Amino acid sequence: MGLIGEVLLLPFAPVRGGLWAVRQVLAEAERQYYDPGTIRAELARLERMLEAGEITEEEFDRQEDVLLDRLEESAHRGAGTGNGTTG
Against a cut of 0.70, is the pTM above it? Predict the structure, then answer.
């Protein structure tokens, strides 16, 4: 199809460009979400909140479980910074 296909699909170029931009934003958001450094910082913040009495022990445990699950998923994905792998 080559050149003819490109010419026929030219009217859809803005849509394809928009989809590319959305994919890039989602990829960056996912990278940040699974970044071990970010997760560890959130764990530290959570602990400070518990010590300050801003959250209950139950809320701490619930949120800590979520963050530890993210950290484990991050290790499986090889995502994040500082561990020498790419996502």
Answer: no
